[in-house]
Predict the structure.
Amino acid sequence: MDNTPDAAGLDPTVRFSERAQAYASGRPSYPPQIASYLARELSLPPSAQIVDLGSGTGLSAQIFLQAGFRVIGVEPNAQMRAQADQLLSGVTGFTSVAGSAQATGLADASADCVIAAQAFHWFGPEEARTESLRILRPPPRAALIWNVRRTSESDFSRGYEQLLLEFGGEYPQIRERHTDEESIGKYFGGRQWHRADFPHATELDLELLAARVNSTSYLPAPSDRRYVPMMQAVRDLFQTNQRGGRVVMQYDTHVYLGVIQT
């Protein structure tokens, strides 16, 4: 019997289908300086072709498009992909395809850099490595990006963490999945990568905070009996901690970058 997380119902191609709209409105963006940092550190050519694996609703693609790069978003979930197409409709340089990190459907040696933002924990590291090497031109450059929420920065951040622990049964399992150096090393083929951190914060009103909660796949959906008490807890947390109708969710954005070893 397969007891891996995917066998336990963690398939990202289906688990976000009913949450795509909330994901698009409630999830944080990424610090825009990441794009210029990668351009410098990885010596990316002007107008480089970036492949965004698990591109979701297009939030990660935005900062690279704004920096003048071209982006192909590879996303297996049709609803998430539709949100990206809507968000980035008319933006020069963006296309999206139905594919996965293990099977993008893209041509050999067709990309200058591969990124995965808030998505690598859904991949098989070795399979994603093989596919990345196939589609990348030499040198095979890549970056793995996560917005990592600060859990003890404030009363609000501590309360939000407690809410996730109380209502998110899969939360500890997903939080730790493939974010360790061993999994990252499997993808890069060794220790030929380094990490950079960028502080990041988003302000949320109650509507956006509710969308942030509803975008989270391991929290109860509206059909779950725990949904109503969870949303009451969200409202209570917001009212206790809001200042001027906003709360601040603070992150450290971790970027793991380097050249995949062949």
In short: The chain has one domain: 5-151+171-202+250-259. Residues 151 and 161 are 6 Å apart (CA to CA). Confidence is low (pLDDT under 50) at residues 1-9. The chain has eleven helices and seven strands.
